[in-house]
């Protein structure tokens, strides 16, 4: 009888161990929730400080070097077109996997910085400093199971001493 109880206990322990070692379906779905996110960041850089919209008097800032920085880490770089527009798209395989949606939404978490000298666009702009804009959340959509987060660069302000 003792050997039967020992055998049953051994079988039960093996079954429990196998059950505990097997991954659950929920765990498999939550391996990396960031991996299903795509972030689009767009905006227009103008040759004037604190102007939001190209319909105003300011001219665009063409061929300006633009960086997306999150937590003081440069995530992406691009150049504006002839109309001063830029677009940055970061997908699941980009460096952004280290970041979260909260990095974009929290104050100062992510921002767009113009690294080209301001005098190249407008000689009246101060020489030291960079144009910097925080991000504003735009439209969210789901496309083929991918979360697409759209962000718009807000008003560009002059900031000194970014340490670029």
TrEMBL record:
Coiled coil: none
Keyword match Iron: no
Alphabetic keyword roster: Signal
Protein origin, superkingdom: Eukaryota
Residues making up the signal peptide according to the UniProt record: 1-28
Protein name: Phylloplanin-like
Pfam families assigned: Pollen_Ole_e_1
Source organism per UniProt: Daucus carota subsp. sativus
Record carries keyword Signal: yes
PANTHER family: PHYLLOPLANIN-LIKE, POLLEN OLE E 1 ALLERGEN AND EXTENSIN FAMILY PROTEIN-RELATED
């Amino acid at each position: 009888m003792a050997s039967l109880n020992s055998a049953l206990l051994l079988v039960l322990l093996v079954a429990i161990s196998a059950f505990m070692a097997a991954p659950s379906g929920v765990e498999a779905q939550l391996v990396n929730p960031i991996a299903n996110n795509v972030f689009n960041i767009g905006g227009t850089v103008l040759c004037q400080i604190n102007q939001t919209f190209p319909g105003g008097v300011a001219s665009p800032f063409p061929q300006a070097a633009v960086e997306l920085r999150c937590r003081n880490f440069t995530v992406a770089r691009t150049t504006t077109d002839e109309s001063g527009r830029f677009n940055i798209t970061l997908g699941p395989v980009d460096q952004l996997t280290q970041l979260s949606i909260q990095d974009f939404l929290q104050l100062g978490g992510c921002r767009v910085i113009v690294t080209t000298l301001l005098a190249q666009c407008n000689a009246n702009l101060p020489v030291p400093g960079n144009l910097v804009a925080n991000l504003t959340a735009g439209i969210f959509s789901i496309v083929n199971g991918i979360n697409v987060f759209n962000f718009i660069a807000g008003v560009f302000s002059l900031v000194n001493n970014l340490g670029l």
